[in-house]
């Protein structure tokens, strides 16, 4: 047993999961920290999926009748359990996803925050009272529980993305069936254990929360099941384009959170000290493996050289190493495939005329796939720049004015997150306007990476159009009815229709 396996098992035990490993299991759990196998798990079959969804649907039929404020107690208990076990869950995230400890703790805090938001929402799932043209009538809308919600999540946020969906779905009156990434199964088992304990404490149906362990065939079975009216899928654009038509074929709903190719515009008026700090975190945090990671900087030609020198200097001092070690800022890439994609993109960008300013090489740390974050100055926005590379690879582009910067910014297929660094109020407002950023998230004087729970999270174009977390994202998990009540003794018809 490796030291990482021992740490993982200890954290799992504290989270209520006894040793889940099966030497004969077909699924291998690895840590990107050193590439070691943590253990093996036995997965679900396609037949299991049908049974689990059936049990979740039965649980939903009971849960939907529970008043929403009472349903909120489940999420409150989950939030308390997350507070109690924040350190253990963060340790698992670091071991499986390679995040530095601070970011892993931040991910668990994000889960706690969405629970807090959802508890409040449980008393505010409100509709509208609508003016009616018919005398003696009242028209209103109501929101009702939807059904079983299928959640498919990626490795980079192995716990938070599930919680965004689950917390809202639970207070909405839904059951949740979760297919986590095969790369972060232990974190998923821990989250499921906490959710199950929260359900037990409040007397909710046990099958209100379920997990599917398996490969793409298990995910496909979840996507295709007509008893799952909503599939929330987070991952690559390629994955989303496979999920969406399958759900649409049975007239289900998709909530898609897909790829990003996020940019920051740096205007001549920008506070460059602030810009450098925002750019570096956004570009190298989570080793560039966030959907909101900064991929492109579009800088005005008058400050290009100054900004480039500052960024290169900051990059050369970044501590790279095990995410469990204090002081580390850049952990490993998730696996060999990610490393090879990083190397191929660096090579292609240089072949396209780009200049490698710093980084781009493998960092010799343990046996994991660690790299030196790269900056490449590009003469133009080539195809490789327009593609999302899930790694710490930052392209620097030059512009002559804000109009050109916005045109470059929007000239990619993805539309998730964006930012501008400027002290000019007119530039900031233009960037946020309808003719500015075409992304679902637009920031001023902060980078594109990282979002607070209170706002709706998601993007446009190839990012999929979905919205999760705050604002009115809860409506995804419910169905709307429009009601008209006649409290008169007459029967007037709308639009003045006479039928007598």
TrEMBL record:
Keywords annotated in UniProt: NAD, Oxidoreductase
InterPro entries given in the database record: Ald_DH/histidinol_DH, Ald_DH_C, Ald_DH_CS_GLU, Ald_DH_N, Aldehyde_DH_dom, ALDH7A1-like
Aldehyde dehydrogenase domain boundaries: 26-481
Keyword Mitochondrion included in the entry's annotation: no
Active site (record annotation): 257
The protein's Enzyme Commission number: 1.2.1.3
PROSITE patterns assigned to the protein according to its UniProt record, in alphabetical order: ALDEHYDE_DEHYDR_GLU
Family per record: Belongs to the aldehyde dehydrogenase family.
Self-association state and partner proteins as the record states: Homotetramer.
Protein name as catalogued: aldehyde dehydrogenase (NAD(+))
Source organism (scientific name): Kribbella solani
């Amino acid at each position: 047993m490796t030291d990482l396996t021992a740490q993982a098992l200890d954290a799992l035990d504290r989270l209520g999961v006894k040793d889940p490993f099966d030497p004969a299991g077909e699924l291998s759990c690895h840590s990107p920290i050193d590439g070691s196998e943590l253990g093996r798990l036995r997965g679900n079959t396609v037949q299991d999926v049908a049974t689990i969804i059936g049990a979740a649907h039965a649980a939903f039929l009971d849960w939907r009748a529970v008043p929403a404020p009472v349903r909120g107690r489940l999420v409150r208990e989950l939030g308390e359990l997350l507070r109690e076990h924040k350190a253990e869950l963060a340790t698992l995230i670091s071991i499986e996803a390679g995040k530095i400890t601070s970011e892993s703790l931040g991910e668990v805090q994000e889960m706690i925050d969405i629970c807090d938001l959802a508890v409040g929402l449980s008393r505010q799932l409100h509709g509208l009272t609508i003016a009616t043209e018919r005398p003696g009538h009242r028209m209103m809308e109501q929101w009702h529980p939807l059904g079983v919600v299928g959640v498919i999540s990626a490795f980079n946020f192995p716990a938070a993305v599930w919680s965004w969906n689950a917390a809202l779905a639970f207070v909405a009156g839904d059951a949740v069936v979760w297919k986590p990434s095969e790369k972060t199964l232990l974190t998923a088992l821990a989250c499921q254990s906490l959710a199950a304990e929260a359900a037990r404490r409040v007397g909710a149906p046990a099958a209100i929360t379920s997990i599917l362990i398996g490969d793409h065939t298990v995910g496909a079975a979840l996507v295709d099941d007509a008893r799952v009216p909503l599939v929330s899928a987070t991952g690559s654009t390629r994955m989303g384009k496979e999920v969406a038509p399958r759900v649409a074929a049975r007239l289900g709903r998709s909530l898609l959170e897909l790829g990003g190719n996020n940019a920051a515009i740096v205007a001549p008026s920008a506070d460059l000290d602030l810009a450098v700090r925002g750019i570096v975190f956004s570009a190298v945090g989570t080793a560039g493996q966030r959907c909101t990671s900064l991929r492109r900087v579009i800088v005005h030609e008058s400050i290009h050289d100054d900004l480039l020198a500052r960024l290169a200097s900051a990059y050369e001092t970044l501590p790279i190493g095990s995410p469990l070690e204090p002081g580390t800022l850049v952990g490993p890439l998730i696996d060999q495939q990610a490393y090879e994609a990083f190397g191929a993109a660096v090579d292609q960008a240089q072949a396209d005329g780009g200049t490698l300013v710093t980084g781009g090489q493998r960092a010799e740390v343990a046996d994991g796939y660690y790299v030196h974050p790269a900056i490449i100055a590009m003469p133009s926005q080539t195809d490789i720049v327009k593609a999302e590379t899930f790694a710490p690879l930052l392209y620097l582009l030059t512009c002559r004015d804000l109009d050109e910067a916005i045109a470059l910014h929007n000239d990619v297929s993805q539309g998730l997150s964006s930012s501008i660094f400027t002290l000019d109020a007119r530039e900031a407002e233009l960037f946020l306007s309808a003719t500015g950023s075409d992304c679902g998230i637009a920031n001023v004087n902060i980078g594109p990476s990282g979002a607070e729970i209170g706002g709706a999270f998601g993007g446009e174009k190839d990012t999929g159009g979905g919205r999760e977390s705050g604002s009115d994202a809860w409506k995804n998990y419910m169905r709307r009815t429009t009601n008209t009540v006649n409290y008169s003794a007459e029967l007037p018809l709308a639009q003045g229709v006479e039928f007598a």
